[in-house]
Protein backbone atom coordinates (compact mmCIF):
# COMPACT_ATOMS: atom_id res chain seq x y z
CA UNK A 1 0.00 0.00 0.00
CA UNK A 2 1.33 3.38 -0.89
CA UNK A 3 0.44 6.89 0.19
CA UNK A 4 1.60 9.99 -1.60
CA UNK A 5 1.38 12.36 1.37
CA UNK A 6 1.28 16.10 0.83
CA UNK A 7 1.37 18.66 3.64
CA UNK A 8 -1.29 21.22 2.76
CA UNK A 9 -2.76 24.45 4.06
CA UNK A 10 -6.01 23.43 2.32
CA UNK A 11 -7.29 20.73 -0.02
CA UNK A 12 -10.55 19.57 -1.53
CA UNK A 13 -11.90 16.92 -3.87
CA UNK A 14 -14.84 17.36 -6.21
CA UNK A 15 -16.95 14.80 -8.07
CA UNK A 16 -19.55 15.83 -10.66
CA UNK A 17 -19.35 19.46 -9.53
CA UNK A 18 -19.91 18.60 -5.85
CA UNK A 19 -17.24 18.84 -3.16
CA UNK A 20 -17.08 15.46 -1.42
CA UNK A 21 -14.31 16.35 0.99
CA UNK A 22 -12.35 19.40 2.08
CA UNK A 23 -9.80 20.21 4.77
CA UNK A 24 -7.73 23.06 6.10
CA UNK A 25 -4.24 22.48 7.49
CA UNK A 26 -3.26 18.85 7.31
CA UNK A 27 -2.44 16.06 4.88
CA UNK A 28 -3.79 15.21 1.46
CA UNK A 29 -3.20 11.47 1.09
CA UNK A 30 -3.40 9.90 -2.36
CA UNK A 31 -3.77 6.18 -1.64
CA UNK A 32 -2.83 3.28 -3.88
CA UNK A 33 -3.69 -0.32 -3.02
CA UNK A 34 -1.37 -3.11 -4.21
CA UNK A 35 -2.86 -6.37 -5.45
CA UNK A 36 -1.29 -8.24 -2.50
CA UNK A 37 -2.21 -5.77 0.26
CA UNK A 38 -4.06 -6.78 3.41
CA UNK A 39 -5.43 -4.94 6.44
CA UNK A 40 -1.95 -5.21 8.01
CA UNK A 41 -0.53 -2.79 5.44
CA UNK A 42 -3.46 -0.42 5.95
CA UNK A 43 -3.01 -0.47 9.74
CA UNK A 44 0.70 0.33 9.45
CA UNK A 45 0.15 3.09 6.89
CA UNK A 46 -2.65 4.76 8.88
CA UNK A 47 -0.43 4.88 11.99
CA UNK A 48 2.48 6.18 9.93
CA UNK A 49 0.44 8.96 8.30
CA UNK A 50 -1.06 10.09 11.60
CA UNK A 51 2.35 10.24 13.27
CA UNK A 52 4.64 11.55 10.51
CA UNK A 53 6.55 14.46 12.03
CA UNK A 54 6.41 16.83 9.06
CA UNK A 55 4.78 19.92 10.58
CA UNK A 56 6.91 22.73 12.01
CA UNK A 57 7.47 23.30 15.71
CA UNK A 58 8.16 26.72 17.29
CA UNK A 59 11.69 26.66 15.86
CA UNK A 60 10.43 25.89 12.35
CA UNK A 61 11.79 22.32 12.35
CA UNK A 62 9.65 19.48 11.06
CA UNK A 63 8.98 17.97 14.45
CA UNK A 64 5.20 17.73 14.84
CA UNK A 65 2.72 15.20 13.53
CA UNK A 66 -0.82 15.57 12.26
CA UNK A 67 -1.97 14.32 15.67
CA UNK A 68 0.21 16.87 17.47
CA UNK A 69 -1.22 19.84 15.59
CA UNK A 70 -4.84 18.61 15.52
CA UNK A 71 -4.70 18.72 11.72
CA UNK A 72 -7.04 17.14 9.23
CA UNK A 73 -6.58 14.49 6.55
CA UNK A 74 -8.25 14.08 3.16
CA UNK A 75 -7.88 10.66 1.47
CA UNK A 76 -8.29 10.14 -2.27
CA UNK A 77 -8.02 6.71 -3.92
CA UNK A 78 -5.52 6.60 -6.76
CA UNK A 79 -4.80 3.25 -8.42
CA UNK A 80 -2.38 4.96 -10.83
CA UNK A 81 0.23 5.15 -8.05
CA UNK A 82 1.05 1.53 -8.88
CA UNK A 83 1.33 2.30 -12.59
CA UNK A 84 4.49 0.99 -14.21
CA UNK A 85 5.73 3.10 -17.11
CA UNK A 86 9.15 1.44 -17.40
CA UNK A 87 8.27 -0.26 -20.69
CA UNK A 88 6.63 1.41 -23.64
CA UNK A 89 4.55 4.57 -23.36
CA UNK A 90 1.35 3.25 -21.84
CA UNK A 91 1.54 2.44 -18.11
CA UNK A 92 0.69 -1.03 -16.88
CA UNK A 93 -1.48 -1.28 -13.77
CA UNK A 94 -1.02 -4.99 -13.03
CA UNK A 95 0.35 -4.23 -9.55
CA UNK A 96 -2.78 -2.28 -8.57
CA UNK A 97 -5.47 -4.20 -6.72
CA UNK A 98 -8.68 -4.78 -8.69
CA UNK A 99 -11.58 -2.58 -7.54
CA UNK A 100 -13.37 -5.39 -5.66
CA UNK A 101 -10.30 -5.79 -3.44
CA UNK A 102 -9.05 -2.20 -3.43
CA UNK A 103 -12.26 -0.49 -2.33
CA UNK A 104 -12.71 -2.41 0.95
CA UNK A 105 -9.03 -1.84 1.83
CA UNK A 106 -9.31 1.84 0.93
CA UNK A 107 -12.36 2.15 3.21
CA UNK A 108 -10.56 0.21 5.93
CA UNK A 109 -7.55 2.56 5.71
CA UNK A 110 -9.83 5.60 6.03
CA UNK A 111 -11.53 4.05 9.09
CA UNK A 112 -8.18 3.27 10.71
CA UNK A 113 -6.85 6.78 10.04
CA UNK A 114 -10.05 8.21 11.50
CA UNK A 115 -9.46 6.15 14.67
CA UNK A 116 -5.85 7.32 14.84
CA UNK A 117 -6.89 10.97 14.55
CA UNK A 118 -10.06 10.75 16.63
CA UNK A 119 -12.15 12.47 13.96
CA UNK A 120 -13.87 11.72 10.66
CA UNK A 121 -11.64 11.72 7.58
CA UNK A 122 -13.21 13.14 4.41
CA UNK A 123 -12.61 11.35 1.12
CA UNK A 124 -13.15 11.40 -2.57
CA UNK A 125 -15.42 8.83 -4.25
CA UNK A 126 -13.76 5.51 -4.98
CA UNK A 127 -13.47 4.88 -8.72
CA UNK A 128 -14.89 8.25 -9.73
CA UNK A 129 -13.30 10.89 -11.92
CA UNK A 130 -12.24 13.51 -9.39
CA UNK A 131 -10.83 17.03 -9.34
CA UNK A 132 -8.39 17.50 -6.51
CA UNK A 133 -7.32 20.97 -5.44
CA UNK A 134 -4.59 21.67 -2.94
CA UNK A 135 -2.22 24.27 -1.64
CA UNK A 136 0.96 22.33 -0.91
CA UNK A 137 2.62 23.76 2.19
CA UNK A 138 6.40 23.82 2.02
CA UNK A 139 6.15 22.08 -0.38
CA UNK A 140 6.36 18.85 1.57
CA UNK A 141 5.52 15.66 -0.34
CA UNK A 142 6.47 12.13 0.74
CA UNK A 143 6.08 8.68 -0.77
CA UNK A 144 5.21 6.31 2.11
CA UNK A 145 4.90 2.64 1.26
CA UNK A 146 4.42 -0.62 3.09
CA UNK A 147 5.01 -3.52 0.76
CA UNK A 148 2.83 -6.59 1.27
CA UNK A 149 4.66 -9.38 3.13
CA UNK A 150 4.40 -11.78 0.19
CA UNK A 151 5.68 -9.13 -2.25
CA UNK A 152 8.91 -8.37 -0.35
CA UNK A 153 12.11 -9.32 -2.10
TrEMBL record:
Catalysed transformations (reactions): a D-aminoacyl-tRNA + H2O = a tRNA + a D-alpha-amino acid + H(+); glycyl-tRNA(Ala) + H2O = tRNA(Ala) + glycine + H(+)
Keywords, in A-Z order: Cytoplasm, Hydrolase, RNA-binding, tRNA-binding
GO MF assignments: D-tyrosyl-tRNA(Tyr) deacylase activity; Gly-tRNA(Ala) deacylase activity; Ser(Gly)-tRNA(Ala) hydrolase activity; tRNA binding
A GO BP entry: D-amino acid catabolic process
Pfam families noted in UniProt: Tyr_Deacylase
Motif window: Gly-cisPro motif, important for rejection of L-amino acids: 138-139
Cellular-component GO terms for this entry: cytoplasm
UniProt function note: An aminoacyl-tRNA editing enzyme that deacylates mischarged D-aminoacyl-tRNAs. Also deacylates mischarged glycyl-tRNA(Ala), protecting cells against glycine mischarging by AlaRS. Acts via tRNA-based rather than protein-based catalysis; rejects L-amino acids rather than detecting D-amino acids in the active site. By recycling D-aminoacyl-tRNA to D-amino acids and free tRNA molecules, this enzyme counteracts the toxicity associated with the formation of D-aminoacyl-tRNA entities in vivo and helps enforce protein L-homochirality.
HAMAP family, A to Z: Deacylase_Dtd (MF_00518)
Quaternary data: Homodimer.
Family indicated by similarity: Belongs to the DTD family.
Protein name stated in the entry: D-aminoacyl-tRNA deacylase
Species of the source: Rhodothermus marinus (strain ATCC 43812 / DSM 4252 / R-10) (Rhodothermus obamensis)
